[in-house]
């Protein structure tokens, strides 16, 4: 398990490109037949990934840093298949087949979780501390709450699929969904926003290997950029905007943890005030 400590917006002017990347960008998150995890001290979010290849079940072990008997002893998790084909997640005695972009919410107290696939599935995991146990739920894009935003004129036409939120799959604090950009639209989350009560992580996927997303972060009056490749994540502290534009089409998983599960609890960062 890798660790990322929390940062303060006053540090941003002192960070060069490498410092920005080492604090906020998560690379190499999908090793073959092994689960990798990153523990962020921003709201204690854990992100993880695995690309199961051989058909052998890959078990989610509890890293020492959690000091737990099993990974979800005091946590809940959302899993999204960000690969190109189906894969299987075994949760205790139940088997879930996840098509690309399917989501599985796994409640606190679940002891045994393993990932199976033969090369096409890639499982992304986001976990937050949990004080109660909610039922495990599998959902497809068709089950999610879709919200259409943006327009072609501003190159930000997109559909936001909300899966885990206060009016969808119930959780303690995890909020999670998937956003798809319309063909020809490049901007996500523009106009941007911040949410002081929640940390957010974006995981970009479905981007061709030779293309990139330019992700903007920082306080609205002091922005920076990170150049992000396919299947890489960006940690966004509560004081930071999080938006980006791709050099080609892409999708992303957004996931939050913190004070509430109210998707709408955001403060807009108007385009004209960005610097
Ligand atoms: O394109 C968008 O706009 C988003 O997907 C925004 C995210 O859902 C988000 O940042 C939620 O706080
Ligand atoms: Zn947000």
From TrEMBL:
Zn(2+) binds at residues 193, 195, 200, 242. GO terms for molecular function: 4-deoxy-L-threo-5-hexosulose-uronate ketol-isomerase activity; zinc ion binding. Its EC number is 5.3.1.17. The keyword tRNA processing does not apply. It holds the Pfam family KduI. CDD domains: cupin_KduI_C (cd20491), cupin_KduI_N (cd20294). It catalyses: 5-dehydro-4-deoxy-D-glucuronate = 3-deoxy-D-glycero-2,5-hexodiulosonate. It is an enzyme of class 5 (isomerase). InterPro entries: KduI, KduI/IolB_isomerase, KduI_N, RmlC-like_jellyroll, RmlC_Cupin_sf. Belongs to the KduI family. NCBIfam families: PRK00924.1. Catalyzes the isomerization of 5-dehydro-4-deoxy-D-glucuronate to 3-deoxy-D-glycero-2,5-hexodiulosonate. This is 4-deoxy-L-threo-5-hexosulose-uronate ketol-isomerase. It comes from Micromonospora globispora. The gene is kduI.
